[in-house]
Amino acid sequence: MLPAINPENYLTADMNILEIKDLKKYFPIKSGVFSRTVNNVKAVDGVDLNIEKGTTLGLVGESGCGKSTLGKTIIKLLNPTEGQIVFDGNDITGFNTAEVRPLRKDMQMIFQNPYGSLNPRMNVESLVTEGMEIHNIHSKPERKEIAVDLLEKVGLAKYTLNKYPHEFSGGQRQRIAIARALAVKPSFIVCDEPVSALDVSVQAQIVNLLQSLQDEFDLTYLFISHDLRVVKHISDMVAVMYLGKIVEIATSEEIYENPMHPYTKILISAIPDIKKSRENRKIVISGDVPNPIDPPSGCSFHPRCPIAEDKCKISTPELADKGGNQMVACHLA
Ligand code: SF4
Hints:
With about 325 residues, the chain is an alpha/beta fold. The chain is built from 9 helices and 12 strands.
């Protein structure tokens, strides 16, 4: 079921830059001399999402819940197993490598680790202009001019053009990665845990930078993080993911003020500096995310859910409209 079910409250199709329907990404586990598929890691298991142009969808959940795989599948760094991806009105689900290449200009990704995502042998000028060169945009002097301009916008001086990644701090490297992503004028960026490798003091600077660039460049973000505190400040909508599925989606305000899914409540309760109602005070979650090869029956959260009932072990809850812009997959929400 798509979140955009209520035209009164929600988005219309032409406002969405991205629509994904029942998206699945399974990684086969092979065994034996004939390498037969004996099972699958169900990293993304039937996700429906829409993202409105010019907005940010925050995607949160614990490590290993499938967030990054979902981001990579959406921009076709990974091929989906099933489902549909519609980007800017075009169904790109079955696009092959050659068809995806021009799309790379419109869909960019900023990775978690600014230490690993930049080629240490390339100087800043080459890193920022590489995309324009690949897509054959602008002349060489124009590319350099654009690189200088972008570096200035992300808070780096012109003289850094000749420097190499090892000469920068983590925050500065992430600024270079942002300038590099912006150089090809994308309309959609997947920010995959862009601040989680940075010091807390630098995290806010990068989030603020992404926010100010969003207005200036008319960008749409899918902002992935395990940290709800980080997502809060940048997201218009927040989707909570657990074991390959979306369990709750709502406006940023709604999800922090009125979380409905027990898993969301637990994540919210773990944020140290957020004002909480009495019922949302710190709730302890037990155990780890279950193995996605063999997810629990019924509601996959039931082994860890503090309010699980017998029916939760048998029946899988669907994402259901709870009014306003909130959808929740829980029998008891
Ligand atoms: Fe908990 Fe049951 Fe709701 Fe799942 S369906 S979150 S187990 S109450």
